[in-house]
């Protein structure tokens, strides 16, 4: 049995309604928070009730060096101008050999920002792009 190192070169793929938007080398914001309302019960001094109220989801930021897949991202963002359709998405974390580490399904995805690379001929840095997406929750 071969041991798979969980810390080795993870990269991410993004698909919107089954159509691949390519691979990214950074992904942050896969998080959720449950807001809690505290209620005190008369005569019960042992604890305070913690009642869940609202669930919020963070925006997700995906980063990568500039690739030909940038055109697919631009097309998806431009589609918002003709009417908002909130598709499902899938983010997959993959090892360097392409094997799946984890997968997250997202409901009602919306592109909220895209940042293109800074093209400076005096700089030797990699031209990166950042895509930020909002969603309404996780699914299978």
TrEMBL record:
Domain of life of the native organism:
Bacteria
GO terms (molecular function) for this protein are: structural molecule activity
Q: Which Pfam families match?
A: Phage_T4_gp19 (PF06841)
State the protein's name: Phage tail protein
Q: Which organism is it from?
A: Streptomyces coelicolor (strain ATCC BAA-471 / A3(2) / M145)
Source organism lineage?
Bacteria, Bacillati, Actinomycetota, Actinomycetes, Kitasatosporales
